[in-house]
Design goal:
Order of helices and strands: HHHEHEHHEHEEEEEHHH
Largest sheet: 6 strands, parallel
Radius of gyration: 20 Å
Mean pLDDT: 79
Shape: globular
Low-confidence stretches: 1-39, 248-265
Number of domains: 2
Length: 265
Amino acid sequence: MRRFAAFRALVISLVVLVTAFPSISRALDGEALHSETTAARANIVIGFVGGFVGHENLHHGPVQLAQRIRQSAPPGTFIRVFENRRRKQAYEAIVRLLDVDRDGVLSAEEKARARIVLFGQSWGASAAVMLARDLRRDGVPVLLTVQVDSVAKLWQNDSVIPDNVAEAVNFYQPHGFVHGRAEIMAADPARTDILGNYRIDYHKDPVQCPQASWFDRVFTPDHMQSECDPHLWSQVESLVRQRLVLHDTSATTSPGPTTSFGPQP
């Protein structure tokens, strides 16, 4: 009886521990464990949701996009969506992935292996830029940042793209109390190519968001549409997919855009 009680207490403790610490729960997940221990990391795709949305909420554009890419991404691709307030967790995940020899220090070779794409919507778009800035301090390059109706928090600046980012693109809509930043610029235009600042007008071309909350429908209808616009997110998907390569760390440059982005005439 005592042995059974001790075993039961151990099981309960493990369940509580896993529930209390999401990072441990993710590490126990088969896909995450495989992804984070693979020696040669070819692609890292990190997305951020806006507002107070959960990272697994399939009603939102960034989560849907990650799910679609995950289904047919090249082998070895790491894809994960985070809440915008979990930027530190996203940063730590990237460092773990790049630190192949597990010595706690990113070598020049490990940094060169990085093929990182960051995207997000609303506060999540600003978080993507902030994460790129975090990586710059470590000398880690980023292939692409994608901002969708980017909204910065009071202490953030989502308008200037750091010079460790090779390419950046901004999609925004101009209406309503909450609307995206109209223009992003490169800290160093010689090192960062701004692919465009693309304006989308949902007053002219509205989209339906059947899963949106009543709050979003009443108070932020245009901002809400940027999150569920299928045409917009298909363009983001094309941008991301063009930069995913097969499990080959010898590639050091990203392919140029092969698709026309932004609203069509």
